[in-house]
Every structure is written in structure tokens, then in C-alpha cells.
Write a structure and sequence with these properties.
The chain is mostly helical. The protein contains eleven helices and no strands.
Amino acid sequence: MTPRQFEARYEPCWIELERGLDALDKGARDGRKARKLKAGEFPTDTTPVAGGARVAQLYRQCCEHLALARERAYPVHLVARLETLAARAHQRIYRRHDFGLAALRDLVLYQAPAAVRALRWHLLVVALVFVLPIVVVGVATWVDPHFVLTVVDARQVRMFDGMYGQEAGEHLGRTSGDDWQMFGFYIMHNVGISFQCFAAGLMLGVGSLAMVGYNGLIFGAIAGFLVTRGDGERFFSFVITHGAFELTAIVLSGTAGLKLGHAVLAPGRLTRTQALVRAAGETSPVVFCFFVFLIIAAAIEAFWSSAGWIAPGVKYGVGAGCWALVFAYLGLQGRGHEAAPAR
């Protein structure tokens, strides 16, 4: 094949690639995405240009054409054109997209909720392991208040009674000046629990289930005990708002951990290391999600939940709104974008 025949045959692909790169560069500036060009369609001034997937395909073809042109010692101007085009496409495709407000926006609005929905079966298992002990132990403690001592010791019972009992006062045992200190404490405490649930997943997933189930046991025992003492309203009005984020974060951390354990236990055709690396990538948006939820929960718990001067009815209303927001975010946010290519 002569250089002229080679150029005549493949130039439409090069022009399409150039136009696709121009469109992607323009889209990065003004936020508009280029429409995809049908395969084999020659671009004109009124033809839609190639999208990201098509540009990647054309880039690979351009690299093949460049290798052929060099091997066959085609004219310098032809090789230089292909080198320039391939270098431009490589820079556009493989440049880092990990930082910046746009990447953070995509992570928050699309990737995190989509990653949670992709693990829906793991999420269901972990949610059941968390909720069932709450219900069973809570009812058992409500029927027999002494049952709480089978789950926690007497010192912990006295501690929670002091926190939520009538003697705790308007601010639940502390002054408003302690709010910032408690904010830091809640972050460290809750993040520690959640990351333990996550990391324990390496024990074939059993560790995450055990950690989540244990937290469910504690919550159910304390809730049942306080209800029998007549302090149920103080307790539930305290936890309902920040619990939307904190309890969800615990379940999400267990879900991510269970996914890691599943990858180790059943790697399929991959090695266990490869399966674990893939699972870590799939769960990283979930980790981001539950970490942000914990920060939000700590702020609400420190500055809102402990404020005894706020009527319980107001806290219940705000708490219901927070639970609805969490479910809407995880269940609905970003639907239709799961299949969209990463920017």
C-alpha cells in the first residue's frame, strides 16, 4: 500500500479523532458532552462528533496506524501527523481526573449512591444482621428489664441511665460549652466503630457481620432498657436525627466489609489478590459515603440531638426528614448515570 493509498483509506478516522478531541476539550470547558458518532460515518460540519468511548477506540487505531507508518518508512509529514494526533489523544485520555470539584461532585452525586445500589444484596444481608438483634433484644429487654445485663454490664447500664435519665438535665448531662469537644469525640468514636466493621470483612466477611450484629445487640438492649425506665422519649428523640446518618454508616461499613470478604472467599476466575483489589475499588465510593455520613452524624449529635430545649416533636419531624433524605439519596440519586463513562 502506497503512502497516498494509506492516507486516503484511514484519513476519515484521523479526522474523526481530531474532531472528537476538539469536542471533548470543548465539553471540559463548557460542561457539555459531545454526542457519539456512528461507526463509519464521515464527519462534516453538521455531523455529531465522537464521544469518549469512540475517541478511545479511534486512539487505539491511530496508534496502530502510527506503528505501520513507521515500519513502512512512510513520509515524515505523515508520521509526524500521526505522532501529534496520538500524543494529543493519549494526553486527553490518560490525564488524571482524580482531583477537583468536578470529580468530587461526580463522586457525591453519582458514584457513591450507585456503588451502594450495586451492593444491594450485601446491603440487605448486613441490614438484617443489624436490625434483627435490635428488635429481638429490644423486645426481650422490654419484657424483662434484667435481660439487659446479659448484653452489657451494670456499669454501662448506669452510664446510659445517667445519660438519658431524668437526672441528666436539659443538655443530657453536659453543658452547651462541651459541644465542640463532643463533636470531636463522636467523630473519633463513630469512625473507629465503622472502620472496624469495614476492616473486619477481611475475615471472610464474618468479622463485619459479627461487628454489625454486636452493635445491633447493644442498641437494642439500651433502647429496651430505657423504654422500661420511662425514658424512651428522651432516648429516641436524641438518636432519631443523627441516627439516620450514623446507623446507616454502620450498615454501609459492614456492607463494604462483607464485599471484601466475599471477594476473598469466592474470587471466581481471579486470584484472591486480584479479586480483593477489584472489590476494594468497587467499595471505595461506599467508604467515602459512610465517612461523610459519620461527619454529618457527629455534627448533628453534638449540636442538635443533645439540645434538651428543643421539643421532642420537632426532633422527630427533623429526624423523619433526615431518614427520608438518606433513603432518597441512596436509592434514587444518580439513577440513569450508572452506565455513564467516568469523566
